[in-house]
UniProtKB/TrEMBL annotation:
<keyword id="KW-0560">Oxidoreductase</keyword>
<dbReference type="GO" id="GO:0020037">
    <property type="term" value="F:heme binding"/>
</dbReference>
<dbReference type="InterPro" id="IPR036396">
    <property type="entry name" value="Cyt_P450_sf"/>
</dbReference>
<dbReference type="InterPro" id="IPR002401">
    <property type="entry name" value="Cyt_P450_E_grp-I"/>
</dbReference>
<keyword id="KW-0479">Metal-binding</keyword>
<keyword id="KW-0812">Transmembrane</keyword>
<dbReference type="GO" id="GO:0016705">
    <property type="term" value="F:oxidoreductase activity, acting on paired donors, with incorporation or reduction of molecular oxygen"/>
</dbReference>
<keyword id="KW-0503">Monooxygenase</keyword>
<keyword id="KW-0349">Heme</keyword>
<keyword id="KW-0408">Iron</keyword>
<keyword id="KW-0472">Membrane</keyword>
<dbReference type="Pfam" id="PF00067">
    <property type="entry name" value="p450"/>
</dbReference>
<dbReference type="GO" id="GO:0005506">
    <property type="term" value="F:iron ion binding"/>
</dbReference>
<dbReference type="InterPro" id="IPR017972">
    <property type="entry name" value="Cyt_P450_CS"/>
</dbReference>
<feature type="transmembrane region" description="Helical">
    <location>
        <begin position="12"/>
        <end position="30"/>
    </location>
</feature>
<protein>
    <recommendedName>
        <fullName>Cytochrome P450</fullName>
    </recommendedName>
</protein>
<feature type="binding site" description="axial binding residue">
    <location>
        <position position="453"/>
    </location>
    <ligand>
        <name>heme</name>
    </ligand>
</feature>
Length: 511
């Protein structure tokens, strides 16, 4: 073959081949993100396109250390860390955060980024990120519907906690905290997602949890391999997740059928203010002419479980560990809970008045957050107000864990101070900026800007009820020689020790 070219061309075939290889390499290099991001300093390894793969292995188990190193060197600016599939640019500081907060969706997308992180086309389903219309229910209508649902949510969370504890021994039992937290949270949340009686169905709840685990594990598995392997791995994984979705579909189908029939038969509009996410989605689909696709609706329910239940269960688990580690908080917390519940019962107003409870959980989340939040992919070139330019296609996120431990924002920043946000000057007590749900540049647990977590009001409500119930009714302590368990880290994900146990002792004076 090369001889034939040699006869045709004035240069030898070998030289031609070399030129083609060099030109292709230059083409790929100058089009690569390694080149496009060469002005952004690299942390935790080499900027070299090949060596960065080796550094990306380190990212799997030392991701937060790499981000902390970058934060200390480039605070208020940007740096990049290598992951197996791409560079992640990490930004920090109020100014850059504000730029993101003000940027329109034309420039940057949370969904594009989440879709890649969760490998949704192989796992949860592509549509939940490419057309996330179900998320709108958490922006306005959920908040609107929630105003009628507080009572139901309170009842569900309290009865979930009662049922779960009743099933255990009454006098000093030792249990895996995350198991209890997950069960209470899953029931309380499912009350709004699928309603009664399905929110109490053990098989449905177990399948939802299975879906969450499958999506979490498989997306992380796919993401530790270079992109070229994704379709093969994806094919192996998709079948497993689809099987779980089909099983859950059997539970969602009757809900959809009943609601659709009611709507078709009723001449008047069905009053759906006491509905749930399933019925709100059916209404929306019927009103907008979308097909009622059971597989799609089921995936949207499961996707919602995914974003909500695991984060809330982690927060409740961590809060209970902190309660055992810092028992001096139990008494003032109980005084507050007894006082407001005694005066008003369990309701929206009394929960809002639990400022110490709010602060304790907020402080727990401050220290228990993952390495980054606010993941975005740039859809267009973007220049931050401090002059930093990032090209379209870049993935970036905020250094949340490092921000939360920065002495510039929090005094004794690594110390747990349960009432950090409630022990404030008297004139500031009612200032909403201290609440768990408020978004500030130094508290990034719920992200920031137009895509900040819309479910945070619901999350705070459920978490406060569940935590307050346990504080009021149980003394918690570590088993002998126990201590505050370390968090589990993988890449930038931070989880409480899901195997750690606590002893729960029923208190005599009941609330
Ligand atoms: C402790 C519990 C929770 C935590 C820590 C949490 C955290 C977050 C974070 C960090 C984001 C991304 C924000 C950003 O990038 O700026 C987010 C988005 C989101 N969260 Fe949550 N979340 C929680 C509970 C919930 C709950 C209970 C729901 C639903 C009821 C929910 C629904 C959503 C949705 C739909 C989005 C996407 C928003 C969008 O695309 O604009 N989350 N959440």
């Amino acid at each position: 073959m090369l001889e034939a070219y040699n006869e045709l061309l004035p240069v030898s075939g070998n030289v031609l081949l070399l030129v083609v290889v060099i030109l292709s390499w230059m083409y790929f290099f100058f089009n690569s993100f390694t080149y496009k991001l060469k002005h952004i300093p690299t942390v935790g390894g080499s900027s070299n396109i090949l060596l960065s793969y080796i550094s990306s292995l380190r990212y799997n188990f030392h991701g937060q250390e790499m981000i902390q190193e970058g934060y200390e060197k480039y605070k208020g600016s940007a740096f990049k860390v290598p992951t197996m599939t791409r560079w992640l640019v990490v930004i920090s500081g109020p100014q850059m955060l504000d730029d993101v907060r003000r940027a329109s969706d034309e420039y940057m997308s949370l969904d594009a980024s989440e879709s890649e992180i969760l490998q949704s086309k192989y796992t949860a389903g592509k549509a939940i990120h490419s057309d996330p219309w179900h998320a709108n229910f958490f922006r306005a209508p959920l908040t609107k519907h929630l105003s009628n649902r507080h009572e139901g949510i309170v009842e569900e969370v309290l009865s979930a906690a009662e049922d779960i504890f009743r099933g255990l021994k009454t006098d000093g039992f030792q249990v895996t905290v995350h198991e209890i937290a997950k069960k209470i949270i899953a029931r309380g949340s499912s009350h709004i997602f699928v309603g009664l009686p399905l929110c109490r169905n053990a098989d449905y709840l177990q399948l939802s949890e299975k879906f969450t685990m499958e999506v979490f594990l498989s997306s992380h598995l796919i993401n530790v391999f270079p992109k070229v392997f994704h379709p093969i791995l994806g094919c192996l994984i998709t079948g497993k997740v689809t099987k779980t979705v089909k099983q859950v579909e059997n539970y969602i189908r009757p809900l959809v059928q009943i609601h659709t029939n009611q709507k078709v038969q009723s001449e008047e509009t069905v009053d759906n203010e006491f509905g749930n996410l399933v019925t709100w989605m059916v209404d929306e689909a019927m009103a907008s002419g979308r097909p009622i696709d059971l597989d799609d609706l089921t995936r949207r329910i499961l996707g919602t479980n995914f974003v909500s239940i695991s984060s809330m269960a982690a927060a409740l688990t961590d809060a209970l560990f902190n309660l055992a580690a810092y028992p001096e908080y139990a008494s003032p917390l109980r005084q507050e809970i007894e006082s407001v519940v005694g005066a008003e019962g369990w309701n929206k107003i009394s929960v809002a008045k639990m400022v110490k409870v709010d602060s304790f959980i907020k402080e727990t989340q401050r220290l228990g957050t993952g390495g980054v939040t606010g993941n975005r992919q740039l859809l267009k070139n973007f220049t931050f107000s401090n002059g930093i330019f990032l090209p379209a296609g870049t993935y970036f996120a905020f250094a949340s864990h490092s921000t939360h431990r920065d002495e510039a924002f929090y005094s004794n920043s690594t110390e747990f101070q349960g009432f950090r946000f409630s022990d404030v000057a008297p004139e500031e007590v009612d200032d909403p900026k201290h609440q768990m749900v408020s978004l500030t540049p130094e508290y990034l647990i719920f992200g920031s800007g137009r895509h900040a977590c819309p479910g945070r009001f619901f999350a705070a409500f459920v978490l406060k009820i569940a935590f307050a119930y346990i504080v009021l009714n149980y003394d918690v302590e570590f088993p002998e020689n126990g201590r505050l368990p370390d968090h589990w880290w993988f890449q930038t994900v931070c989880l409480p020790d899901v195997k750690a146990e606590l002893i729960f002792k029923k208190r005599l004076q009941m609330g």
